Amino acid sequence: MYDKSSPYYIDFPGRIKAIQKGMAEEKLDLYLGSRLRTMSWTTDAFFPWRSFIVIPADGLPTAFTFVIDAARAADDSWLDEDHVLGFAPMGGQDQITQISDLISSLAQDPIVRSVAVNVASTTEENAAVGNVWDAELEFSLILTLQADEEEAEG
After folding, report:
1. Quick check: is 5 in a domain?
2. pLDDT tens digits, residue range 112-141?
3. With contact defined as beta carbons under 8 Å apart, do 77 and 56 qualify?
4. pTM for this structure?
5. What is the mean pLDDT of each run of 10 residues along the chain (154 residues)?
6. Which CATH number goes with the domain that contains 101?
7. Which domain holds residue 18?
8. Distances in Å between the alpha carbon of 81 and those of 4, 115, 118, 119?
9. What single DSSP character describes residue 83?
10. How many Cα atoms within 13 Å fall on the side-chain side of residue 12?
11. Is residue 128 part of a domain?
12. Could you give the 3-state DSSP secondary structure of residue 119?
């Protein structure tokens, strides 16, 4: 399936490296994507649930999807099972906590100072169209990153 000599081969690792190159040009340490198109384009898998991908400045991205579909998504994707994780609506296993924990772990070395979030342009835009969930995610990430930054400075 990932035979580089095949006329149907798509270079998914190359796509990630191109995103990371653009991130470096924009001085971004992390990219958080959530659109279906972004998920498919970066992972080579279909995600029917609200899912997310965290792309660090270097290394492999990590995809987050609903727990009942994580194994299938990992099987379909070029990413290994350590980079396709499931979330569930339970304490500590929800997507906001898991994504925040991953960002915090990435922030240890080097410190994450900038993040691009493609869930929506602004929290106000999300709230205006009634998309409270994305507004909550964006707000939570902002709070998490600010808290991490304050801890690093203090």
Report:
1. no
2. 555 544 444 444 454 444 444 444 454 445
3. no
4. 0.70
5. 78 91 84 88 90 91 93 94 90 81 72 48 47 46 52 58
6. 3.40.350.10
7. 12-148
8. 22, 24, 24, 24
9. G
10. 20
11. yes
12. coil
